[in-house]
Design a protein that fits this description.
The protein has five helices and no strands. It has about 140 residues and is mainly α.
């Protein structure tokens, strides 16, 4: 893999880290506001709010994971596999919420963003395989 490609991959993972930081910090440190932004209602049930906070805490954790990948994209593929599965699953769930009328248009921003990163991660794996690098 060329140095140019590695720089591109680093930029992709720094962008992914920032994307997760934005959603994770807001959702973890101000879960009530984040919930309102996505669902147009307050999370009056403390258990629901705590579960939502935990989910966004996972998002926040991946900020650090993608920074680790950006440091060495050829080495930390496992983080990308797990993070990509999480992004795909979260995007599908938010799309289901939106289709059911439970989430507003802000949820579509999350869906589109996460799907863009899923596509970029697939490109990353394609390039790894194409250049003879190991996936794990």
């Amino acid at each position: 893999m060329t140095n140019r490609e590695i720089r591109l991959l680093r930029a992709i993972f720094i962008a992914a880290a920032i994307w997760n930081l934005c959603g994770g910090v807001l959702g973890y440190f101000n879960p009530g506001h984040a919930f309102m932004l996505l669902f147009d209602r307050s999370a009056d049930d403390p258990v629901l709010l705590s579960v939502f906070q935990g989910a966004t805490g996972t998002t926040f954790t991946y900020f650090f994971g993608y920074l680790i990948v950006a440091f060495n994209p050829l080495r930390h593929t496992g983080i990308v596999i797990v993070g990509g599965i999480g992004k795909l699953g979260f995007a599908i769930q938010m799309l289901k919420f939106h289709a059911a009328g439970l989430a507003n248009a802000n949820a579509l921003i999350v869906v589109v963003g996460d799907m863009v990163f899923c596509a970029l991660f697939l490109y990353y794996f394609y390039r790894l395989i194409k250049t003879g690098n190991r996936l794990i």
